[in-house]
Amino acid sequence: MSWFKRKTYPQFWQNYLSHFKVQQKNELEAIRFCVFDTETTGLNTKEDRILSIGCVGVENFKIKIADQLESYVIQEHFNAETVKIHGLLKAGQLSKLEEEEVIIQFLDYIKDAVLVAHHAAFDVTMINNALKRMQLPKLKNKVLDTGHLFQKTKLDTAKEHFSLDELSKRFNIPLHDRHTASGDAYITAILFLKLLAILNKNKDLTLKSLLRSHKRIGLL
Question: Who contacts 206 (Cβ-Cβ below 8 Å, separation ≥6)?
Fold first, then answer.
């Protein structure tokens, strides 16, 4: 890619970086969160690829239905065994874009939002690997993991890992469109708000406290 050879970056990446010039606010009510999920060809972050990305915005403790993104990737790398999970066929009738186009859309959508995902390390790694294939740096956004946030509530210390299904059942969240990127993003957004409500009982919760270091509980 020409921008890599010139040691300069394309305009879309410069536009993305421009959103980080102003210091982010610490009050949760003033922050735009982007809850997202990726559906992939498998769980190997080095070999597998993104099939779709689903996102929904959260602001002032509300899910913004109008603030959402759903993109599908044209993917030559394919694993038929995972179709029964995500239902995405190699061909099919969905409108799909090249991976680079999907990543550009994603960057334009998220801007400097705080990213939220369940077991976020996996999804962020998949995005960063796509950026690496484009010869670009990693995401600059701050990231929250709903799995880690649940650990902060100390509601259940019996084990370290809780799946999205387990926490959805615990908090009575309907599993509509489970294992689609947009469906899982919406489920995770509801879970995120429920966890914030628990953690913010004294109305003094800040982004800094949510981001405070915690024990890593893995990718999956």
Answer: 26, 27, 28
For residue 203, the model assigns a pLDDT of 84
Question: What pTM does this model have?
Answer: 0.87
193 within domain boundaries:
yes
Residue pair 150/164 in contact (Cβ under 8 Å)? The answer is no
Secondary structure element (H or E) that encloses residue 67, with its range = strand 62-72
**Residue 26 pLDDT greater than 60, yes or no:** yes
Domain that holds residue 164: 30-211
pLDDT of 38-54, one tens digit each? 999 888 999 999 999 99
Q: What length is written for the chain?
A: 220
Could you give the angle at the alpha carbon of 145 between the alpha carbons of 140 and 151, nearest 5°? 145
Would residue 146 count as lying in a domain?
yes
Answer whether residue 23 is part of any domain: no
Measured distance CA(197)–CA(199) in Å, rounded: 6
| Number of separate domains in the chain | 1
